[in-house]
């Protein structure tokens, strides 16, 4: 934890798991949720990239005042990494799980007989296969998780960024390996929309964030492009978009 003004280190706490990757402040403003890969290896081997050895993917909940571990959840599938998360309520978190395998695109599956282009977001020889989102409910008595259904599993490859739109009760999730932005009903877990961002000129969607005007959100492409979309309607607003701005490969964005 650092001072926001000058960056001084104020405290250092154990994160509560193996390979901490993402962090979110819960709505109570005093609890931190931390997502952990659960992979002790780096995914690199002497002969090149390899699939990570997932041991204990987990989400820990820390008291932001002193770092005390308040609760901890181990992922129900030990073969899936837990990478990113978002707080939906004081007692609820939705997290992205990923399944990275050694192999090629045939292991991932596609939408029908679609021809797939090479996935440049992952090293050759590795492929992201479908993995479900995780819905976590936290309480003093018990912390439990359920998985979202994957009626269209081809779209759930390499979940990257997610944000909760409370106004419309929707979870927006980017999946760069599937070229997809998936809109999910936060209450029922059902898929409302699957948008292929290539149809709007945006390849490999990575970051997603709600704009402060309350009407729009923005999606960023892996290599280039910022696409502005209308909230609830999920229609592009090309007049406000910048599809030519380069990023040279990135993961996430923040609205400041």
Word description of this protein:
Helix content is 0%, strand content 41%. The chain is mainly beta and 256 residues long.
Give a short synopsis of this structure:
Helices cover 0% and strands 41% of the residues. By secondary structure, it is mainly beta.
Which keywords apply here?
256 residues, single chain, 19 strands, four-stranded antiparallel β-sheet, five-stranded antiparallel β-sheet, mainly beta
Give the helices and strands, then pairings.
Blueprint lengths: L19 E6 L5 E6 L7 E2 L2 E2 L8 E6 L5 E6 L6 E9 L2 E11 L23 E4 L4 E4 L6 E4 L14 E4 L4 E6 L4 E6 L5 E6 L8 E6 L5 E6 L2 E7 L11 E5 L10
Antiparallel strand pairs: 1-2, 2-5, 3-4, 5-6, 7-8, 8-9, 8-10, 10-11, 12-13, 13-14, 14-15, 16-17, 17-18, 18-19
Overall morphology: globular
> What structural category arises from helix and sheet content?
mainly beta
Question: Main beta sheet, described?
Answer: 5 strands, antiparallel
CA gyration radius, whole angstroms? 18 Å
N-to-C SSE series?
A: EEEEEEEEEEEEEEEEEEE
Provide a count of the helices.
0
Mean pLDDT: 91
Q: How much strand content do the residues show?
A: 35-45%
Number of strands: 19
Fraction of residues in helix? under 10%
Query: How far from one another are the termini?
Result: 20 Å
Poorly predicted residue ranges = none
């Amino acid at each position: 934890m650092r001072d926001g003004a000058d960056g001084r280190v104020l405290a250092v706490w154990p994160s509560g798991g193996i390979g901490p990757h993402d962090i979110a402040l819960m709505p109570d403003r005093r609890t931190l949720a931390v997502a952990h890969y659960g992979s002790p290896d780096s995914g690199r081997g002497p002969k090149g990239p390899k699939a990570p050895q997932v041991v204990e993917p987990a989400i820990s909940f820390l008291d932001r005042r002193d770092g005390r571990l308040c609760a901890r959840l181990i992922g129900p599938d030990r073969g899936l990494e837990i990478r990113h998360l978002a707080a939906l309520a004081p007692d609820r978190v939705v997290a992205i799980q990923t399944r990275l395998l050694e192999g090629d695109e045939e292991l991932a599956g596609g939408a029908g007989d679609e021809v797939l282009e090479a996935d440049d977001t992952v090293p050759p020889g590795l492929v992201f296969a479908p993995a479900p989102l995780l819905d976590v409910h936290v309480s003093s008595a018990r912390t439990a998780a359920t998985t979202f259904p994957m009626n269209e599993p081809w779209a759930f490859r390499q979940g990257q960024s997610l944000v909760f739109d409370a106004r419309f009760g929707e979870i927006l999730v980017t999946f760069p390996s599937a070229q997809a932005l998936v809109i999910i009903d936060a209450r029922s877990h059902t898929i409302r929309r699957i948008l292929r961002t290539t149809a709007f000129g945006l390849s490999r969607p990575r970051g997603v964030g709600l704009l402060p005007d309350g009407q729009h959100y923005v999606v960023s492409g892996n290599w280039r492009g910022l696409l502005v979309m209308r909230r609830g309607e999920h229609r592009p607003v090309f007049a406000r978009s910048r599809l030519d701005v380069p990023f040279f490969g990135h993961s996430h964005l923040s609205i400041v």
